[in-house]
Amino acid sequence: MSEMFDAVDALVASRSALPSAEERKRLRVAHGLTLDDVAGALHVRRATVSAWESTKKPTEPRGPEREAYARLLKQLAELYPAPVPATFTGVPDPAEARPLSTGSASEAAVMTATENTQTPAPAPVAAAPAAASRPASTTRPSTSRRPGAKKAAPAGTPAGDTDPRFENGPLAVVDVEDGKVLAYCTGGLVLDVPAKSLPSLVDWTLKEAKLGQPKLSGPGRPADPLLVLTEAALERYGLPVSFTAEEKDAGRIPESHKVIKQLVRADWKLTKRGFGPWARIYRPAKGSDRQCVQLCIPSWNALDARFWGDAAQLPPAELARVLGVYASRVMTPRGSTAVTGLELMTALHPPTHAVRDEETGVLRQAETKTPGSLGSDPVDCAPCEAPDGHPVVTALDLPRFHVRGPAEKLFEEAYDWARPMTDAECTLRYLVGLDVNMAFAAGANGLNVGLGEPTHVKGLAFDPKLPGSWLVDLSHVDLSKVKVGKEWVELDSSLLPSPFTPKGDRPTGPAWYATPTVAYAQELGYDVAPIEAWVRYDNGRYLDGWYGRLRDAYLATMADLGVDADLSPEDFLAAMDGYKERDPELTIVVSAIKATVKGGLGKLRERPRGEGWRPGERWRALERPTWRPDIRAAVISRTRINLHRKIVKHAAFTGQYPIAILSDCVVYAASGPSPLDFLPYREGKPLPGGFKLGINPGLVKHEGTQSVLWGEEVRDKFNAPELNLARSIKDGTVTDADNGE
């Protein structure tokens, strides 16, 4: 009988009503579950759970998955009842964000319990005001009230940490209003700050503020609290509002400054980079007791406008929201977006880990490196991977003023290629640009990279699974006849860039290439015979976790802006139209996430920055285990190859060829202004292996459209038939301004 009862229960559950897609997502987010968490528990794919939550066309689970999913949602609904609708519309009363006395533990507990409530984002194309398009946010209640307080941070603010050590979030923006020092935290919380000096502010932060962030990986450590000082706070604590010319050149205030002397008297120390825009104030750790506070000073250009937009000009509550969302989805900023990108790699793969002494039971750091990490000690790169001026290049004793060519130096860089338009292309009306989303992050996904020192070998057969640098002649690869999948196809090679060089020129002899480039030559159907190589037998997918964290951060923030990952091509283009205006603050977060990807990879090959360096001498960055130009080269190689593969498949199927490529942007001539006017979609499905519209990393979005006449006029004006139009396709403005690429 019990089996029959179980069968009846399962039959009832298989037809039980499920909440709406919006409610499903709300319940998952309220409990802090990711799509991967739910997918893993129900033994389905991540995309399946995403489809169940789709606000556009939700799918319904079936069979045992529906029964388990219904059970999950029922339990979550009991924990997180649907919020009572507000009796007002628009922005909450500004007076609802109130200062909190940090002495009340009971108040803090109540606040932690109430700050997780969120409602789902609206449909992507809703024509509502920006404030209405954000999920609702709540302020933590407090018995104290300050008239005229800033409004609670809008939606998109991360939920509070469950770790009681960090219940007030990862960071605070410190400001002074009406003579009071206030700390604006995430979630709309405002703390009273009693500190009268910078040393006492650091003490208060570590002892009372309950700021910080849990570790990102098992062997790692929690993030230090971050304080962002406004101009008013700088004045209150005796610091300059802006740098002098000398301080700007040095990147710090002088050690003779009175505030630094205050810190020294209080036994606080500064890192080697001194008191600059991203200062770190610490005392040497005693065992597991770490005492360190990071400062971010926007008026000293800590938040570079190329990557953070106008974040530095935001009011304190809004700035706390922007940095808080970034911290919760990426990590607490440790410096520039580039520095943070590099630090994220280390945080996810700490060089060492704690082991327990079998005799004493005490935890202590292991001397050997953590498996899968880069370890604690730097390793020298191969001579072909080294930039000019590196000590291993100097040791080669090359002639003075010698310029190394492709047969001596690895040139794996992003595309900068263009060609004149054909007569047929000139008869079309439009130039349409496609941009690959998070292209370099996608290039890092699943990539096998070296974890240790290189080994020099000769006569080794090429192994596409072995990361390294290979000296090989690829000049015989003829793009007029290549393999696409299992079939040979004929193409017009004069209209295609070579996949082997950044400028798209066909190689003329042996040259150094990273593993993905040589593997692509084999994929195109050609034999390769390396002359010599520097390979890394100790290897692994070091960047997978890094990619996953940044991908999820990007997708979650774009979803908050109304651009979901499961939209149809038409709906995706509509959702992307004007998405930046829906919530300018979250748009800043998107920009910072993308800059974290590119900057972090760039840091893997950081050059000397002043320091009185001379060619042949070591520079500071070389002492990091994360100074790894080979990893940077491999990611760029794979990113360039990924784009070329799409171009070849598109050309083989449609006969259309690009006229310009710049990094992750490619331009085609088309009869219409939309990507759908030339991308071969059939019944909503794209060309397999070709360009696909969507927000996921590796898919493409519309970069911009200009007229063919505009392109010809620009090239005539500059007398440059091969001027790279991809550089200006977005808005039609031809400029050489630094955009941070």
Task: Characterise the protein shown here.
It is a single chain. Helix content is 31%, strand content 14%. The termini are far apart. With 741 residues, the chain is α+β, with helices and mostly antiparallel strands. The longest helix is centred in the C-terminal third of the chain and has 26 residues, at 629-654. Mean pLDDT is 86; it is low at 85-161 and 737-741.
Ordered list of secondary-structure elements with their pairings:
Blueprint: H1 2-14, H2 21-30, H3 35-42, H4 46-52, H5 63-79, E1 99-100, H6 105-114, E2 171-177, E3 180-185, E4 190-192, H7 198-207, E5 226-229, H8 231-236, H9 245-250, H10 258-265, E6 269-270, E7 280-286, E8 289-296, H11 305-308, H12 316-329, H13 337-348, E9 354-356, E10 363-365, H14 391-394, E11 416-418, H15 423-426, E12 430-436, H16 439-444, E13 449-450, E14 455-458, E15 468-473, E16 481-484, E17 487-490, E18 510-514, H17 515-523, E19 532-535, E20 539-540, H18 544-560, H19 569-576, H20 579-582, H21 584-603, H22 629-654, E21 660-662, E22 665-670, E23 700-707, H23 708-717
Parallel strand pairs: 1-4, 2-5, 5-8
Antiparallel strand pairs: 2-3, 3-4, 6-7, 7-8, 9-10, 11-21, 12-22, 12-23, 13-20, 14-19, 15-18, 15-19, 16-17, 21-22
